[in-house]
Amino acid sequence: MTRRARACRRLLGVFAIAAVHTAAADAADDAFVTYKSLTPEVALEAAQAAMKTCRDRGYQIAVAVVDRSGQPQVLLRDRFAGLPAPDTATRKAYTALSFRASTADLARSIRDGRMDAALARLPNVAMLGG
């Protein structure tokens, strides 16, 4: 093999290694995602605003704010809200997130036959208006 052929072969080897490392770096970049998340302060402010609106309308409620994975970030229960209110609020927030729709709209869709009623029986789902 000539000297030039060996140099060419080494250069091709370097390019092949560089291509593999570049592909691995691209794959690593695709392996991670970036997203925005509410701060606890903003989540608390949203929950307090919802509670105030309901109080002003004469309702004693619980309100939950969940993060993008459905985990509760804030849960507030008004002093006279019923015993199941915190659980229901958390399940409603999880449901709205999971189906990307208000729970009142989902309940209407089931009632009108546009959505399978079996979906309402999934764990942690609460398709209720209000």
Give a description of the structure.
This protein is mainly alpha-helical. The protein folds into 2 domains: 1-34; 40-121, Haem-degrading domain (Beta-Lactamase, 2-Layer Sandwich). The chain has 4 helices and 2 strands; from the N terminus they run ααββαα. The chain has a two-stranded antiparallel sheet with strand order 1-2. Strand 1 (62-66) and strand 2 form a beta hairpin. The radius of gyration is 26 Å and the shape is elongated. The protein starts with a helix and ends in a 19-residue tail after the last helix.
Q: Secondary-structure blueprint of this entry?
A:
Layout: H1 3-30, H2 40-56, E1 62-66, E2 72-77, H3 85-99, H4 103-111
Indicate the overall shape. elongated
Biggest sheet descriptor: 2 strands, antiparallel
Question: What is the CATH fold-level name of the largest domain?
Answer: Beta-Lactamase
Number of structurally distinct domains: 2
Please provide the count of β strands. Answer: 2
What would CATH call the architecture of the largest domain? 2-Layer Sandwich
Spatial order of the strands forming the largest sheet: 1-2
Return Rg in Å.
26 Å
Strand content: 5-15%
Order of helices and strands: HHEEHH
Tell me, what is the CATH class of the largest domain? Alpha Beta
Q: Could you tell me the mean pLDDT?
A: 86
CATH superfamily of the largest domain: Haem-degrading domain
Write a compact overview of the structure shown:
The chain is mainly alpha-helical.
